């Protein structure tokens, strides 16, 4: 039985660990916090999962909340001009649902499930010296944490990392006591405010296993909605969120004016500098470890790709570990696995960059989505599977050709 060590009990680490336990491997996960500490911590992310990533969890038997948690059944996008006037507004039902479950609930339960299935969970913060000492005890050590000293173990890939600072500053929280009769609760709503940022609102399932509503404010640094970074507690966050909605979405303020945080820790503030790192980490003693997910590919959350990528990379790495059999997990193998995942994730990164710095042709695509259901369907499929957006979404010339073909087809159907 081959021994696998995993540093990090997050989305990727737990999916990988449980996949390998089910395949008969001896797996140890190192976590810096207990399940109870994770459950009772402050919110760190508000990830929404798309159909392919949800299917990975379902196949692992980790979809514990499918019967109770709300889903996104529809999508609504509003675009305003610089004067606050509505210039684009379109809605659509989703062919396959999206789902958001509080990661504090998810990870704490998955950690217990990992142990129940036979995995070893060690609660201990691991630094570089610790990693160097424990690595020889395993056939492979995988680092699945993107923050702290271990992240610096993996060299930055300068060619694939054009960003040197955050492109957005974030604030987000889980809320209750909205006037639900005024909204369609099962809708993912996106409001685009040029030169200001974006506001996302969507149904979620919080750590206390109650339906709630997530609002995420994605602000251009230094602009008028960039007001969350100095928030110190939940009360301040709630007040700041209400004022932002009142100022930037006044037509919906009545819905949110009585809202409350779902619990005192259900809020977050922060900023992420997107980065790609090389997958092989070299230890002081000469050993090597493999980086996955946030340790090597850190995305801005604006396109909601991070947790989806984590599931997909963990799924691929588990497959490759199993296929490797008894052969050594050397640096060439680690690089080859990463390169295979890069063939997919480069489009996820491209999608995120289009959100962060919208190219001119994206406006044409948005206008087409409002009128042509085929374009909107292709876009939704692309959020779930970004390679399907290539080349039309990323290239202005290809976008023009694609839209002409789709519009001609749509016109032919109408006439």
What does it look like?
43% of the residues are buried. It contains twelve helices and 16 strands. The model has no long low-confidence stretch (mean pLDDT 95). It starts with a strand and ends with a helix. With 415 residues, it is of the alpha/beta class. The radius of gyration is 22 Å and the shape is globular. The chain has three domains: 3-62 and 101-163 and 274-355, 3-Layer(bba) Sandwich (FAD/NAD(P)-binding domain); 71-99 and 167-271, D-Amino Acid Oxidase, Chain A, domain 2, CATH 3.30.9.40; 360-414, no CATH class. Strands 3, 4, 7, 8, 9, 10, 11 and 12 form an eight-stranded mixed beta sheet that branches. A six-stranded mixed beta sheet has the order 5-2-1-6-15-14.
Distance between the amino and carboxyl termini = 65 Å
Number of helical runs?
12
CATH topology of the largest domain: FAD/NAD(P)-binding domain
Q: Assess the beta-strand content as a share of residues.
A: 15-25%
Which class of secondary structure composition applies to the elements?
alpha/beta
Report the C-alpha radius of gyration, rounded. 22 Å
Main sheet record: 8 strands, mixed
Please indicate the count of domains. Answer: 3
| Shape type | globular
Order of SSEs: EHEHHEEHEHEEEEEHHEEEEEEHHHHH
CATH architecture call of the largest domain: 3-Layer(bba) Sandwich
Helix content: 25-40%
Number of strands: 16
The CATH homologous superfamily of the largest domain is called FAD/NAD(P)-binding domain
Low confidence ranges: none
CATH class of the largest domain: Alpha Beta
